[in-house]
C-alpha cells in the first residue's frame, strides 16, 4: 500500500516538533554566511575610456610565435588580409604605457579563445570568431611552446597584471551563439580544455541546431535558431552546453577579466541572457557586460527591449550611424540627425551606460567615409563628452585606415603602424579621458541640447552642481549667442583650446567658433562622499517640471521616513532619475526604502509598494536599478 498523504497523526507530530523548535538551529552571527557580496552588484564603468584592439593587428611583440601550429595561416608579407600577421599578447603588454598615457582605462580585445587552425579559402580565424576551445588560448597570441590551457598561460597573467598595475581593465570578447564553420570537412568541433565534447557532424548529444542559413531577418525563429555564415549554432536548450559556456566564462573572470563584450546577442533568446547574466554576476558581482545587438537603434523596439531586459548594456549603433551621417558623410540635417537619437534616450533605462563608437571591425573606418582628420577629431571629442561610455577603435589616434574596397571588411583591420603620442587625437583623448574621470556630469549626468543648426551643436552635461558645456562647429567660422547655458556665471577656459570665455547671467554672448572647432568648458562640483555609496536609478516614471524624485527610507541617510528629509535624485531624462546616496551610519546594515515624488501644491506621491529592502555593503559602490511601482 502506498501512502500518499501523511496521516493526521503525522501532521500533529510534525507540528509538535516545529513548536518545540526542533527544526531551528541556533546560529550565532559569526556563522551567518556572508551574502553581502550579492548586494554589491555592478561595477561603475561610466567613467572609463575603452580602446578596442584586434589582437592580431595591433603589435607583434614576439615573432617566435608567428608561424603558429600551421605556418600556412601566417602571412609575413602582410598582404593577405585573411591570414595572421603576428600580433599577440606580448604586443599589447609592450604597448600598455602608450595606451595608459593616451588616457585609455579599459581595453576590449578581440576573442582570445583557441580557434580552428585551418584556412577557409584564404581566410584564417585571425578575428577570433571561429572558436574551437573556450578554455584554451589561441597559441598564436602566446609565447611559442607555452601551454595554452587557460589555467597555464603566463602571458595572459602578465597582461592582466600589467593592466591592473596601471589601473586599467580588461574586457574579454566572448561568443556564445556559435563555434566554427565547415573548414576542411570539419564543423563545430568543440573542446573542453582539450577534450572533444561536441561535433556538428556527429552531434549525438544535440549541442547544435541543424538549420539552414538565416534568410528572413524579420523572422524571430530564424534569427534565434538558424545559422549565420555557416557557423555551427549552439542549441541553448541543452543544459550541458550552457554549463560548459558559463563555466568557461567564469574561469576567465577568475583569471582577472573585468568586463565582457558579448557577440551576436540578437541570435540567442532573452531567457538565455537573463540566466547567463544572473549566474555570471552572482559569480563576480563587479563584472560589467555589454552586448553587440547588430544595428541597434532606439527606433527599433527589439534592441531597446534587449538593453532594458537582458541585464547587460549594448553597443550604441544608432548613435554611431547618426555621427557618421552627420559628420563623416555631411548629410542634410547635420547635427539634428544626432540630436534625433539623443531625443529617444528615454527609451533606454540606462542611456548613460550605452557603449558609444564611431566605427568598428565590421564597418569601414570613419576616415574611409571622410579622410579629414579634423572632422574625425570632432567625432571623437563628441563621444568622449556625450552620454555613454566611449570606445575608440585601435589606430584611430594614428589616423589608420586603408581605402581598398572602400575600407570594407577586412580592409578595416590594417596593421597598426605608428605610435606617435603627439597626434591631435591622442592628446585630445588624454585630456578628455581625465575629464570623464573627474567630472561626474560627463560620466553620469543628463544631456541637454543648448543650440543646434546643421553645422553647430552645443550641449550641456549636468549632474548635481557639476557641469560640462560643449560647443562644436563643423562648418564655416561663426559667432553665436547661447542663452541659458546653466553654467554658473564666471570665467572659463576651454580645456582643449585654452581659449577664455565669460558666462554672464547664464549666457555666453558672442561665442566665436572657428571652422571645425570644439570648445569644452568644465566645472567640477563637490563629489558625494561616504563609506558606501549607492548609485540609485529609477526608471518608468515620467515627472512634470518642478517635481523632484526622492528616496525615503528607515535610516538616517534617507530621513527615517520623514519625507522632508528624504534624499533627492537628479533628473536624467523622461524615464530616468539618478543619484549617488552616501551611507555612513547605515553602511553594513539592512535598510528599507521606497521612491516618492515631491509635487507643488500637492502631497508627495509615494510608490505603491510595501518596501524595497537592501543589505548595504560595509563599503564601496553599489547600484540600485529600480522601476517605479505605480498606483
Ligand atoms: Ca607574434
Ligand atoms: Ca542562435
Describe this entry's structure for a reader.
The protein is an alpha/beta fold. Among the domains are: 444-523, Immunoglobulin-like, CATH 2.60.40; 532-627, Sandwich (Immunoglobulin-like). It is 22% helix and 25% strand. The protein has an eight-stranded parallel sheet with strand order 12-11-10-5-2-1-14-13. Strands 24, 25, 28, 29 and 30 form a five-stranded antiparallel sheet that branches. Residues 60, 62-63, 65-66, 86, 88 line the site of one calcium ion.
Question: In a nutshell, what does this entry contain?
Answer:
By secondary structure, the protein is an alpha/beta fold. Among the domains are: 444-523, Sandwich (Immunoglobulin-like), CATH 2.60.40; 532-627, Immunoglobulins (Immunoglobulin-like). An eight-stranded parallel beta sheet has the order 12-11-10-5-2-1-14-13.
How helical, in percent, are the residues? 10-25%
Q: Helical element count?
A: 14
What does the overall shape look like? globular
Question: In angstroms, what is the radius of gyration?
Answer: 27 Å
CATH fold name of the domain at 532-627: Immunoglobulin-like
> Bound small molecules, which ones?
calcium ion
Ranges where pLDDT stays below 50 over 5 or more residues in a row are 1-6, 21-27
Q: Beta fraction of the residues? A: 15-25%
Task: Indicate the CATH class of the domain at 532-627.
Answer: Mainly Beta
Number of strands: 31
Q: Which secondary-structure class do the elements indicate?
A: alpha/beta
Strand arrangement across the biggest beta sheet: 12-11-10-5-2-1-14-13
CATH superfamily of the domain at 532-627: Immunoglobulins
- What's the CATH architecture of the domain at 532-627? Sandwich
For the biggest sheet, the summary is:
8 strands, parallel
What is the overall pLDDT average?
Answer: 94
Amino acid at each position: 500500500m502506498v501512502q500518499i498523504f501523511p496521516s493526521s497523526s503525522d501532521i500533529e507530530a510534525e507540528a509538535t516538533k516545529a513548536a518545540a523548535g526542533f527544526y531551528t538551529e541556533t546560529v550565532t552571527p559569526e556563522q551567518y554566511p556572508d551574502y553581502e557580496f550579492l548586494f554589491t552588484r555592478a561595477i561603475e564603468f561610466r567613467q572609463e575610456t575603452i580602446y578596442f584592439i584586434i589582437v592580431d593587428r595591433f603589435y607583434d611583440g614576439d615573432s617566435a610565435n608567428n608561424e603558429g601550429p600551421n605556418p600556412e595561416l601566417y602571412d609575413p608579407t602582410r598582404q593577405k588580409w585573411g591570414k595572421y600577421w603576428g600580433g599577440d599578447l606580448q604586443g599589447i603588454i609592450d604597448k600598455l604605457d602608450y595606451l595608459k598615457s593616451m588616457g585609455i582605462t579599459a581595453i576590449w580585445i578581440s576573442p582570445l579563445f583557441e580557434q580552428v587552425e585551418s584556412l577557409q579559402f584564404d581566410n584564417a580565424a585571425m578575428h577570433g570568431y571561429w572558436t574551437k576551445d573556450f578554455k584554451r588560448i589561441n597559441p598564436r597570441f602566446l609565447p611559442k611552446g607555452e601551454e595554452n590551457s587557460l589555467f597555464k598561460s603566463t602571458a595572459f597573467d602578465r597582461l592582466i597584471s600589467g593592466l591592473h598595475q596601471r589601473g586599467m581593465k580588461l574586457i574579454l570578447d566572448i561568443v556564445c551563439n556559435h563555434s566554427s564553420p565547415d573548414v576542411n570537412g570539419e564543423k563545430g568541433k568543440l573542446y573542453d580544455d582539450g577534450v572533444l565534447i561536441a561535433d556538428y557532424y556527429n552531434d549525438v548529444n544535440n549541442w547544435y541546431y541543424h538549420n539552414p542559413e538565416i534568410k528572413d531577418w524579420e523572422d524571430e525563429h530564424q534569427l534565434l535558431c538558424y545559422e549565420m555564415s555557416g557557423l555551427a549554432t549552439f542549441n541553448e536548450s541543452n543544459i550541458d552546453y550552457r554549463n560548459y559556456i558559463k563555466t568557461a566564462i567564469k574561469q576567465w573572470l577568475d583569471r582577472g577579466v573585468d568586463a565582457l563584450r558579448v557577440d551576436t546577442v540578437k541570435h540567442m533568446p532573452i531567457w538565455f541572457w537573463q540566466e547567463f547574466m544572473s549566474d555570471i554576476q552572482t559569480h563576480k558581482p563587479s563584472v560589467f557586460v555589454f552586448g553587440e545587438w547588430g544595428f541597434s537603434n532606439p527606433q527599433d523596439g527589439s534592441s531597446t527591449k534587449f538593453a532594458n531586459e537582458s541585464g547587460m548594456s549594448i553597443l550604441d549603433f544608432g548613435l554611431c550611424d547618426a555621427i557618421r551621417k552627420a559628420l563623416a558623410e555631411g548629410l542634410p540635417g547635420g547635427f539634428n540627425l544626432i540630436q534625433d537619437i539623443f531625443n529617444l534616450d528615454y527609451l533606454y533605462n540606462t542611456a548613460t551606460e550605452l557603449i558609444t563608437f564611431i566605427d568598428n571591425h565590421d564597418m569601414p573606418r570613419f576616415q574611409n567615409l571622410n579622410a579629414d582628420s579634423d572632422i574625425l577629431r570632432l567625432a571623437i571629442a563628441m563621444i568622449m563628452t556625450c552620454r555613454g561610455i566611449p570606445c575608440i577603435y585601435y589606430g584611430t589616434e594614428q589616423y589608420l585606415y586603408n581605402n581598398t574596397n572602400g575600407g570594407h571588411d577586412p580592409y578595416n583591420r590594417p596593421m597598426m603602424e605608428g605610435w606617435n603620442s603627439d597626434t591631435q587625437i591622442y592628446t585630445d583623448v588624454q585630456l578628455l579621458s581625465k575629464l570623464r574621470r573627474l567630472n561626474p556630469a560627463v560620466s553620469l549626468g543628463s544631456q541637454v541640447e543648448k543650440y543646434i543648426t546643421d553645422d553647430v551643436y552645443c550641449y550641456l552635461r549636468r549632474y548635481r552642481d557639476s557641469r560640462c558645456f560643449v560647443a562644436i562647429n563643423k562648418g564655416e567660422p561663426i559667432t553665436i549667442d547661447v542663452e541659458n547655458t546653466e553654467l554658473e556665471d564666471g570665467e572659463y577656459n576651454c580645456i582643449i583650446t585654452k581659449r577664455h570665455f565669460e558666462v554672464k547671467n547664464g549666457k555666453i554672448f558672442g561665442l566665436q567658433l572657428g571652422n571645425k572647432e570644439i570648445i569644452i568648458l568644465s566645472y567640477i562640483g563637490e563629489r558625494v562622499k561616504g563609506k558606501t555609496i549607492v548609485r540609485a536609478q529609477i526608471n518608468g516614471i515620467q515627472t512634470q517640471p518642478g517635481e523632484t524624485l526622492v528616496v525615503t527610507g528607515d535610516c538616517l541617510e534617507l530621513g527615517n521616513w520623514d519625507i522632508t528629509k528624504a534624499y533627492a535624485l537628479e533628473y536624467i531624462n523622461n524615464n530616468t532619475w539618478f543619484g549617488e546616496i552616501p551611507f555612513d551610519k547605515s553602511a553594513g546594515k539592512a535598510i528599507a526604502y521606497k521612491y516618492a515624488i515631491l509635487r507643488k501644491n500637492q502631497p508627495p506621491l509615494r510608490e505603491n509598494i510595501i518596501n524595497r529592502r537592501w543589505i548595504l555593503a560595509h563599503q564601496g559602490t553599489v547600484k540600485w536599478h529600480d522601476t517605479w511601482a505605480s498606483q
